[in-house]
Design goal:
With 457 residues, this protein is mainly alpha-helical. The strands form five sheets. Strands 2-1-3 form a three-stranded antiparallel β-sheet, with helices on one face. Strands 4-5 form a two-stranded antiparallel sheet. The protein has a two-stranded parallel sheet with strand order 6-11.
């Protein structure tokens, strides 16, 4: 463990602790897990006191405990008792208390966000994982990354790395570590020298290919990930020059971003004795229009009295206050969407290489799922995507695997690994489902939320 330097204590328990756990007395008949309201599940002793209180529980609230040698185990698939819920969260909690944030569960690496910086990503740690199989080193995202890289080279097949979890779980940070590890591992010293001397026509490439790959993520996160109550994604700004944006393009990005932010401050009111909306002051609109090189009066006119095509002619349409606010929101989304797609295209062109490509490692940082008191359409789409992905994952990693067991004649009791939300997914995406009805209603000019809701019943 010396090769890991100061990170060693954050990756694996000491030899002394391991020996103590093996020699610790254990009676499987009396040492059990029991359900406890505050702690979810705790270790306890039947017919005895622990922590100054006695818990009286039913038989179905008592679960067998794993021997002490499995405490803080690195791969939970190795546990003696894994068929009940308490064993897994208890082991996660024990490792987290010791700041061991990575743990394996068979083929998967589970991560718990420490919400503070730990010295487990230093160069010596990355070097220590190079060329080692998962079982040869402590659990770490670097091990997953290196195994994917080595498998791509030896098996000559594309490799996927899927990073999922709820918002604020640390998905994006781990994605960054994966990309950084792969970039530093794949780029040799000679390639670094070669890349650093290249200048693309019309672009100022201030970094090596490795630097550009690593810098692309923070920039896309800053503009592509929304800030939530659990995750300040929008705080990640850096490295825009390294990716070859000219000073003029950089200013344009900032101007468009500022204009979109000003859209949210625009105010409108209803004309007296009419349903027609009109601006409630033009100062904010003037600022938004200036940043986009537009005429403020034309912008407000297009929002309050848009021209629509009817047949072969254009007519001016009146808008209520709510309709204008809806139009402002749609305009803000459209402008930001086009700007972001342009940035993605620009970055892809900057990272493009003329060298032949045979295989790749795909890294998917899926949007975090959350459930709030008020959930927008965007949040529904995020949660729906995550659940679809989870069902796909369960089916291919568990259901199909169990079918292989049966084909090979292995005695196995089939376990349902969570296809219980399949009916909900079907309700949302099937023909004449929620999304289908919503898309249909969006084509009707006077469709309302109430009209849509009534169609669902």
């Amino acid at each position: 463990m010396a090769v890991f330097g100061e990170a060693a204590s954050y990756l694996r328990k000491s030899e002394k602790e391991r020996i103590e756990a093996q020699n610790k007395p254990f009676d499987a008949k009396t040492l059990v897990f029991v359900e406890e309201p505050k702690e979810s599940s705790v270790k306890n002793i039947i017919q005895s006191k622990e922590g100054g209180k006695t818990l009286t529980v039913k038989d179905d609230q008592v679960f067998p405990m794993n021997p002490p040698k499995f405490d803080k185990i690195e791969d939970m698939a190795m546990m003696t008792h894994l068929q009940h819920e308490p064993a897994v969260p208890y082991n996660l909690k024990e490792r987290y208390a010791a700041w061991m944030i990575y743990i394996y569960s068979g083929l998967f690496c589970v991560t718990i966000n420490p919400y503070k910086w730990l010295p487990v990503y230093n160069p010596e740690v990355a070097a220590a994982y190079r060329g080692k199989k998962c079982q040869e080193a402590p659990p770490h995202i670097f091990s997953i990354s290196d195994n994917a890289y080595q498998s791509m080279l030896t098996d000559r097949e594309n490799q996927p790395i899927l990073i999922t979890g709820e918002s604020g779980a640390g998905k994006t940070m781990n994605t960054n570590h994966v990309i950084q590890y792969l970039a530093t591992t794949a780029v040799t010293g000679e390639k670094k020298k070669e890349e650093s001397g290249k200048m693309q026509v019309g672009l100022i490439a201030k970094g090596t290919l490795e630097d550009q790959i690593i810098s692309a993520n923070p920039l896309l996160e800053a503009f592509g990930n929304a800030k939530t109550v659990r995750n300040n994604n929008s705080s990640r700004f850096s490295a825009i020059d390294i990716l070859g944006f000219t000073s003029e393009e950089t200013v344009s990005i900032y101007k468009l971003t500022g204009a979109v932010m000003h859209y949210g401050n625009m105010k409108f009111k209803q004309k007296q004795h009419e349903e027609q909306a009109e601006p409630d002051g033009t100062e904010v609109a003037d600022q938004a229009a200036y940043l986009q090189n537009l005429n403020s009066a034309d912008l407000l006119k297009a929002l309050c009295s848009p021209r629509v095509k009817v047949g072969n002619e254009y007519v001016t349409k009146g808008q209520t206050v709510q309709q204008v606010y809806n139009a402002v929101g749609a305009l803000a989304k459209a402008v930001y969407d086009k700007m972001f797609l342009w940035m993605v295209t620009h970055i892809n062109q900057q990272l493009d290489t003329k060298q032949p490509r045979q295989y790749f490692i795909g890294v998917l940082d899926i949007a975090g799922f959350e459930i709030f008191n008020f959930n927008s359409l965007e949040q529904l789409c995020i949660n729906f995507t995550n659940e679809k992905l989870q069902q796909f994952f369960n089916h291919h990693m568990f259901v199909l695997e169990q079918e292989e067991y049966k084909k090979e004649g292995i005695e196995w009791t089939f376990i349902d690994f969570g296809m219980d939300l399949a009916a909900c997914i079907e309700l949302i995406e099937k023909p004449l489902g929620i999304f289908s009805i919503l898309e249909e209603d969006c084509m009707f000019p006077k469709a309302t939320d109430t009209f849509f809701k009534n169609k669902l019943y």
